[in-house]
Specification:
Elements lengths: L9 E6 L10 E3 L10 E5 L2 E5 L4 E4 L7 E2 L10 E7 L2 E6 L4 E4 L7 E2 L12 E7 L2 E6 L4 E5 L7 E2 L9 E7 L2 E6 L4 E5 L7 E4 L10 E7 L2 E6 L3 E4 L7 E3 L8 E7 L2 E7 L4 E7 L8 E7 L7 E5 L2 E6 L6
Length: about 325
Amino acid sequence: MNTRFSFQTFLLLLLFGQANLSAQEWQKVMELPAILIPDISVQGDTIFAAGINKFYYSFDGGNSWDSTAVIDPELDYITDVVHQNARLYVATGNMGIWSSINGGQNWQEDNSGLSGLGALHIAGFAVRGDSLYAGTYGAGVFVKKISTNSSWSAYNQGIPWGSIESLHNIDGRLFAGAGANGTMSQQAYPGHTWTEIPFDAFDGQVNLFLGVVRQGDVLLAAGTRKLYRSTDDGATWTSYNPGTGYLGLARFVVNGHRVYVQLAKPAGLSFMLYTDDQGRTGIHFSLRLQVLPGTILLFVTAGCTLRATTDYGALP
């Protein structure tokens, strides 16, 4: 996952279905309070919406909602959540990782093995087989075995940078947004060594790898200044400048033949863009929002519904 920014948000639904883009409308989810919702996770009909220090969840695709117990009263920011082997794992911005074996009724710290400067500042998770990976802001990547809920172990061989801006599993290959010089690190079996690979030429300006998604045989990715496309599993990349300027966050969603990407600047603007041809002819602006500095708009998809959070109760 990527850098998050804290402002009050509302959870919204975009009714997608078979309607064309101009006919879609946003609706506020009235069952959820008007508070910060920094992360949404969808697994089938199950939706987890992160609050400030607890989760709101739905088991029926968003028709009804309930909430977990408070994770910790001192917690003020959640960055990611995964549900594996009947256990909830929660990544936080400054209190490490927490887990629950009873759907969030009780929580316990799950930080055994996390060590080093920044180890409790979790950027996000990635799952590969029976392994759960956590990227941190400062201490690199850690891994644990899901089936036994083992302690965390460092997983950094070959990564030259400690700050992990994003972490994704694409068909068994891990992509880590490590470093700020136009490179990211990849790791695939066999072996456990990461390989640093450039996604753009370094020109002296910061360029972080913010996120990646696969559609068919094409990878689409985002850096802090451009969008990228690869047809050889990330070995080489071509770039497209969407004209947004410096970016601090990127999220991709594949919905049928269309790929959406939400881009957010560290302050000022959020953008929702899309492509219908895997980025061959650029990416069209689907939505452009003038928002308060630091406001985040994020979205995920489940079936035919696109879900998002933003400062506004309705979107144009």
